[in-house]
Design brief:
194 residues; mainly alpha
């Protein structure tokens, strides 16, 4: 009987240890599942955070780009509006100029060209401004002039001045004939040289 009891105790101990081992295995498996679940949750949270950050950055980029595009559009619209206002003002001014010229558009264009002659002459002067003339030598052939009492020097200066393009010639180069009230070029003008 004692042997049977000892055998029963031994079997009970083996069963108890086997049960404890199975319980520990089950606890280990449960702990692993819990850790895996926590890791999955952490990874899901991290993934969601990355997605949210990426969406926020994309939205920020879209808003910045839209803001920049709106600013560029606003700038060009303002420039276009300014140009349109200038053109409208010019058209209104040209209309009044034509009206003040008795409806003669050609006369109005001539008046506009008269205003531009100064800048045209300035452009011509600028073109020859840097020409360097160190010295001008006038040779007198000994005849003392042309027989009209003028000297060779005065004849030279007179022809030099006549060779420069008068304002009427400049206007003609621009395709404009100046009105008579601006004066005429006389061929018999004399230049006094002292």
């Amino acid at each position: 009987l004692a042997e049977k009891e000892a055998e029963a105790d031994r079997r009970a101990e083996v069963a108890r240890r086997t049960a404890e081992t199975e319980i520990q295995k089950a606890q280990y498996v449960l702990e692993q599942e819990r850790l895996r679940a926590e890791e999955i949750v952490r990874e899901e949270i991290a993934k969601t955070q990355i997605e949210i950050a990426a969406e926020a950055e994309a939205e920020r980029s879209r808003r910045v780009a839209k803001g920049e595009a709106d600013a560029i559009l606003y700038k060009y619209e303002a420039e276009a509006k300014g140009v349109q206002q200038v053109l409208d003002a010019k058209a209104e001014g040209y209309g009044r100029l034509i009206q003040s010229s008795g409806g003669d558009a050609r006369a109005a264009a001539t008046l506009l060209m008269v205003e531009k002659i100064e800048s045209m002459v300035s452009a011509q002067v600028e073109a020859i401004r840097n020409l360097k003339i160190d010295k001008i030598t006038v040779w007198d052939g000994g005849n003392g002039g042309a027989g009209d009492g003028s000297s060779s020097t005065s004849n030279f200066v007179s022809s030099l001045v006549r060779s420069l393009p008068p304002i009427h010639d400049v206007a003609k180069m621009a395709g404009v004939e100046l009105p008579e009230y601006l004066g005429k070029v006389s061929d018999d003008s004399q230049i006094d040289v002292e």
